[in-house]
Amino acid sequence: MSNDELMKIWENNKQDSSNINQKDTKEMIENYLKPKLSNVYLSFNVSIFVTIASFIASIIVLAINTYVYRENPKMFKIELGLLSLSLLFLFYGVYIFIKLREINNFSRSLVELVHSKLKFLRNQYEVWLVVLSVGMLVLIFGINTLVDNQNGTYRINDMFSYVMVNLFLFAFVYAINKYSAYLNIQKMKLYLKDLQSESMEQSMKDEGIIKKGTVILFFVAVVLTTFLILGILKINGNI
Length: 239
Fold this sequence. Notes:
By secondary structure, the chain is an all-alpha fold. It has one domain (3-235). Helices cover 82% and strands 0% of the residues. It contains seven helices and no strands.
């Protein structure tokens, strides 16, 4: 039965509560919320997969760089250190993926499942947001040092601008992923309220959260991307 059909049945039964008993109500709510919770799980999985792929790319690039800069002791140590860091990030990403998979076990009650997810997002996933943000900086640094390699050396012309752009990039990646996680957390809180009150009123509002959140996320992403591009152009002396 589709969600639209379940919603229609729910609306009809609100008019005549004698048509449905408590057991049927609970079953209807769970059938309505399971696909929604699966979609939340999928969105986190996609983010994790993309980030893990970027870590693998970092490892490949940095491995190449350790060879390219083998005659430059300082750069060799930096590249080797970042390579080791990327490996740690990759292991943590795999751990996060496995942990999330364990949590998303629909054989237990949905209330317990949602509680576990919310706890996970407040703890391990918060660390993950920092890890993936730093990981993006590592990947960009690795690519830059590979592309701009000049006979085993790498030069930064404007250190202050370089640091500021990287800090901005870190904030950009963190903010986008943090807000995306926030939207999913808000949806899960609505689902939890309905599960606890045996209602479907709150979860029906999640579409509004998605639409409003997507608009805000798109606007923020455009603004931050514009500032980031301007910063990069300034470093390169194009503006």
